Amino acid sequence: MTAKTFLSTCFRRSAVAFSALTLSLGIQASDLPQIPANQVNNTMYQAFYWDAYPGLWADLPAMAAPLAERGITSMWLPPAAKGMNGTFSVGYDVYDFWDLGEFNQKGTVATRYGTRQQLDQALAALDNLGVQAYFDVVFNHRMGADAQENIPGFGLAWTEYHLQGRSVHYTQQNWGYLWHDFDWNWTAFNGSDGNLYPGKWWGNTYHFPYLMGEDVDYNRFEVQQEMKAWGEWVINDVGFSGFRMDAIAHVDTDFTRDWINHVQWATTEDVFFVAEAWVSDINGYLDAVDTPHLRAFDFNLREEFVALSSGNKDMRWWGGLVNSPHRDRAVTFVDNHDTSRAGNPYGMPQVINYKNQAYAYILLREHGVPTVFARDYDEFGMAPTLDKLIEARRYFAYGPGHEYAGNTEAVYAYVREGLSTAPGTGLVMLMSGRNWGGQQLFSINSHQPNTTFYDYTGNVSGTITTNAQGVGNFPVNMTESTGWSVWVPQSTGSAPNTITLRMTKDVGYGYSLFFTGGDSALTNWGAGIEGTWTPGNVWEVTIPDPGNFEWKTRRGPVGGSGQDWESGSNHNQNNLHPSFNGGF
């Protein structure tokens, strides 16, 4: 299957999954809370991963439409500038900043992702969907020089760049005081292969100064001015709304501050800037750059998700930028194209287990802009579960947030109060970090008195009604596979129409398991309702949701009503797949 075919198939399947979700939960658009447009949560989607989606610009409108419907409001796109290897470049080996698939350079007009015209069409489509686009800018270096130069006191180096795109777009007529007549030759760079060129210095960098390629000299005034012009062009002319700043801790900090402040000054748009600062002290990096416009990816929080994946994390304690004084400047994520890449070339510890729980954590909390990763969404098949969490953020995750004081080593709970101006908002989120089986119940203040909640994810059936103080007993499954629940207020028509009772029991050949209980759908403790066998000797029956009720199972010959009773106490609506009590 080609990448394009795979993409198309994934998003057709996702659209079907969304329709099934709304149907199964009995939700119509009118039943969901109405959030004022200026208050809708920003949820970012990383629309690529390494070596994925050639021809992305043409496919982007079809990709974005169902995601926007779920609640995605912004997309981090791959580097759009021409790379040194043309269509074989994923974009991080940037050659010409001003060539976005417009000029015949490096053996091609188009980049890996398409032509400038296709990019323009994709950006227009995103704008129509209300989705912002963020440019992945690689300031640190350039690659793919057109000729070698003999640098005095150094020797030969590949440092002469011809840059046809630059010569067309970066002109004196277009840029006035920002234009400077200089060549991108060795004087525009600090050094290569870790070696400084004569008369140069690395600059004021927060992380080690040399990373790769020809290291751009941001001490040079002319370079600074051109990059300011380019930033204005990308926002005001090309139509992007922000920047993901690649490897930016290796770039001169003073330049980074000045460039961000200039680009924001030069536009009426509220530009989104996020740093990929892969450093231990992300707070320290933000303080060093010292501009309120800059956010940063929360690599420290991802380390918590690595611990969660082990199944041994203490769920009471969480670190990361999002739990620091700079919490409002955190961009949270579970994985990206570097941490989750085929073959794991960087040797990164992986987040494999409890990944839905990790997404629940970043998507539903008050602080941080969360990122959904395309590889998780499509290649790893997480779309059905992520769709529900994205929607829960879009419609319910509003108002002040509170960590539950009773969190345990095994379970984390978090409450959002909701907005008084948007009835139906607010939630109670629980997630388990252990695969023990069964359920655990927690008495939690939802901050919404006398309100009936249901689990938007569908992982736990039934409803919970809070008391006059807003307190209710909220359950969560103690499993890796379904151990996350997002309890949201029930509005007319929004609660699940049905629930499914399950019991695991081998009843022997010729027999069935029957369900009975205190509701008319379960014959009011009369004859049992014959269950359906599923793999693993799991029997199940689906009934209209009766709210609060008790039930039990019986065994009997196939086609009957059940004769032999399960022993022990009755089960209730808070545990729809309990352990068998014994008997028979």
Automatic annotation (TrEMBL):
UniProt keyword annotations, A-Z: Carbohydrate metabolism, Glycosidase, Hydrolase, Signal
The organism's place on the tree of life at top rank: Bacteria
Pfam families reported for this sequence: Alpha-amy_C_pro, Alpha-amylase
Polar residues: compositionally biased ranges: 564-578
InterPro entries: Alpha-amylase_C_pro, Alpha_amylase, Carb-bd-like_fold, GH, GH13_cat_dom, Glyco_hydro_b
Reactions catalysed according to its record: Endohydrolysis of (1->4)-alpha-D-glucosidic linkages in polysaccharides containing three or more (1->4)-alpha-linked D-glucose units
EC number: 3.2.1.1
Cited SUPFAM superfamilies: (Trans)glycosidases, Glycosyl hydrolase domain, Starch-binding domain-like
First and last residue of the signal peptide: 1-29
Residue ranges of the region described as Disordered: 548-584
Residue stretches making up the Glycosyl hydrolase family 13 catalytic domain: 42-393
Membrane-spanning parts: none
Family of this protein: Belongs to the glycosyl hydrolase 13 family.
Protein known as: Alpha-amylase
